[in-house]
Design a protein that fits this description.
By secondary structure, the protein is of the alpha+beta class. It contains 13 helices and ten strands. It folds into two domains: 20-103, Phosphorylase Kinase, domain 1, CATH 3.30.200.20; 109-328, Transferase(Phosphotransferase) domain 1 (Transferase(Phosphotransferase), domain 1). It has helices at residues 62-74, 80-83, 109-115, 123-142, 178-181, 197-200, 208-223, 225-231, 248-254, 262-278, 289-292, 296-299, 314-321, and strands spanning 20-22, 27-36, 40-47, 53-59, 88-94, 97-103, 145-146, 155-159, 163-169, 176-177.
Amino acid sequence: MGTVSSSHTRKRVEIKRHEILSSKSSQYLVEKVLGEGCFGKVAQCTKVDTKEKMALKILGSDESGTIELLMLQELRRLDPDKVNLVKLTEHFHYSGYVCLAFEMLDVTLYDYMREMKFRPMHLFEIQMITQQLLVALNALKSIGMVHADIKPDNIMFINRQRHSVMVKLIDFGMARPLWLLQGGPGRMIQPLPFRAPEVILGLELDEAVDMWSLGCVLAFMCLGQKYIDATKGTPHKCTESNEPTPSLEDMLEFSPDLMGNIQERKDTMALLCLLKHMLKVDPEKRIKASDALENHFITKLQWKDINPTLYVSPDCLTKLLGQLNESTGKFKPWSLQKKCA
């Protein structure tokens, strides 16, 4: 199979503020446009009868809308609240548009990081968000679906005031059944900073592409601006010295960034151990979501013992992440008695 066809006609979505869009059972009052892409717009709406805030995705292409709707209907086999996936409430056609009504969420992970001036996130935030997204990936695997577009813009906080770090995975416009991706090479999916090596190389694909993207999101949460600079092609020098780069084991043992709080050091090493397995170049060796949920970073941390103001040192992580490659197979988290799993 070749690349996904784009022969369908895209109709420009023209939606005005205060316009009312009607389905067979509901009416939606458009309040403002939240976002716009090549296939359509997302608007914040009020459901007229219940006054409930909703997110209405309005697509200008029948084909793109039909494909996304098929994927969302497959998600009905799952409980979206239990597996951290966005909830579709209804769909309808309006003036030639395909309209998808979703629960209203808060802000995207990218917007949150921008509000925080792209500073690295706290360890406990990274752990909780990663755990929820691993649950989502594990659920998608159970129904044979690949999201294929995991990035900070497609991860949304539910309600930061009530549930500060509860998130959901959104936007299934690029999602496909696993069998379709496995049908052959040549599918160009995923935004470039989150694109798996096998996609770039035109190899056969499976759900491992989502794990790679999630690993990139994890690095983004850890590094913030430094990750953005790196993925834009901006060279970041970890050291001005011309001396050979020390091994990962040496850096773990002697890095001054991790010599203070022992628990913080152990937790950071557990995070890096997980990240190393998420970013295996060989997709067959890349960690599965079910195994990642059993990783030490997800299961063993005791947040009651952690100062929530602590965050991962970006300079240390930049150095460490530069060493996460196939040559570090003997790496073990500092003071742990078993190999990374």
